[in-house]
Description:
Blueprint: E1 3-6, H1 11-19, E2 25-26, H2 41-59, E3 66-77, E4 80-82, H3 88-98, E5 102-112, E6 117-128, H4 133-142, E7 162-166, H5 169-173, H6 177-186
Parallel strand pairs: 1-2, 1-3
Antiparallel strand pairs: 3-4, 3-5, 5-6, 6-7
Helix pairs in contact: 3-4
Amino acid sequence: MPTLYLASGSPRRRELLSQIGVPFHIHSLPIDENVLPGEAPLAYVERLARAKAQVALASLGQDRQAVALGADTSVVLDGRILGKPLDREDCLATLRALSGRTHQVLTAVALASHERLTCRVVCSEVSFRSLSDAELAAYWASGEPRDKAGGYAIQGLAGIFVRQLQGSYSAVVGLPLCETAELLGEFGIACWQQV
């Protein structure tokens, strides 16, 4: 029976994986997350998800039953990746750019075993209503956006900013559950409904 290792320190990914009834261990290792020159956002998230899974699997040694799950999420506006905010001003500038507009959230999920590596990318579109400077300042003061891609958490306070979502809510949070369950099944790992 395969043993699943989550190559992420994200509490949101832990919660989402637990939500679908999959037993797993945390095994997260740091990787270089810098965007390569000329790298497209879709290629970036796919590369990082694959790298996270591969690095975690390699560090587990020769355990033939090990399967590592890596994931990465990026917020994209006008073809540009909006990373985690550097500081208050960076966060407010990012949220002002998202205000009243539609942006993409790309989430890649990769599974790696000693036999194979498979990856899927999900694209969701998120539309924000217009946001006031007072709302943005209050949101920053809440502490929520400090470590979030694009400077917001849809599952938290920023849920009130979202006018419309087309795609996968769980992917915007950090792990596309439908695609993840399909990949896990391909690797012989059952979710709750398959037990």
